[in-house]
Amino acid sequence: MNAFSAVKSCRAERLWHRFRSYKDGGVLVFAQVDPAAHTLEEDLDAALASNADGLEISLARHDGLDWRLGHGTQALVLEDILAKLGEATLLCLKLEDADLQDYAAIAAQLHDHGAAQQTILQVRLSARCPLAALVKEPFFHSVAVIIETPLEVLTTEPNMRQLHVPAHEVDFKSFEELNKALFITRAKQARLSVDVTKCAANFSVLDLQHARVIWQSLVDAGVTLIKAQNPDNLLKALGDWGLRPG
Prior knowledge:
single chain; 246 residues; alpha/beta; eight-stranded parallel beta barrel; two-stranded antiparallel sheet; 10 strands; globular; disordered N terminus
């Protein structure tokens, strides 16, 4: 390993451990890649070139093919994405309409490629992926996981309070709902992940100034993991507030 690779590897390792450690604090930013974009590979390269801590990639499976990002001839399989990822950036993987077997297969691929300590699986609880069965799966204990649920499940599911994962993600329509989610995650010492692309729609964000007000409110409330498409403005805002290096 040359010196440059060693530096990159150390950065990825630091970020992965930082994500898993609630006490490390700070705000982590993930750049979202839109699977419907017509310039998919260019968008992926741009996200990698940003100063974000990680990428969020949503994979889908069409016509019995492997899990892929995007459609048609420009679609990328997981191996393509991992090859581009390098060793300086985290990867958050979402699977559309997945069951436990799907998540287990992807986790096995990550281990095979030596990427398990650079990747986070975002698991959406559903009838195909129930919590009681999820916690018994070996893969659940071998990779870092974000649990995605409706707010009602996070706040009312009895077993959720005993579930220990690095982060939870919920969709919320008001700061009252956000504070309910944060009350639970703080008690569990887990990060709360917020998708500000959804947040912008939920709060009818009109312009950058309005967006910055929302972002600062999220950070002040205690959100420590934020995902955004084109995160440059978000990263600049966090830097202005002394929450990012440089």
